[in-house]
Amino acid sequence: MLKFECECGNSTRFFATGDYLDYQTEFLDLEDDDCISYELNESRLLIQCKFCKHRYVLPKFEAINES
User: Fold this and answer.
1) Residue 22: beta bridge partners?
2) Stretch 7-15: mean pLDDT, rounded?
3) How far apart are the C-alpha atoms of 45 and 17, rounded to whole Å?
4) Which residue of 6, 28, 56, 59 has the lowest C-beta tally within 10 Å?
5) What is the side-by-side strand order in the sheet with 2-5?
6) Minimal CA–CA distance to 35: which of 13, 2, 58?
């Protein structure tokens, strides 16, 4: 489970759905989608708090080589 908490105190969690894209990639879903909104594109994940409107950015995911 992943937890998101904004500077204003608003918080929600992402939980695992049990559905897999492949062997080690599981889908996540929001516990409460009234708390945040998000936008995903090729270069980033933008998360916005629905209460105070503060925005957060996660940069593009770079795969880690596991040897």
Assistant:
1) 25
2) 95
3) 20
4) 59
5) 2-5, 11-22, 25-30
6) 13
Structure tokens at 34: 């009234």
Q: What is the pLDDT of residues 21-60, one digit of tens each?
A: 887 889 989 998 889 999 988 899 999 999 999 999 999 8
Question: Strands across the sheet with 36-40, in order?
Answer: 36-40, 44-49, 55-59
How far from 50 is each of 1, 25, 31, 62, 67, CA to CA, in Å?
Answer: 21, 28, 14, 28, 41
Distance CA 58, CA 43 (A): 9
Distance, CA of 67 to CA of 60 (rounded, Å): 22
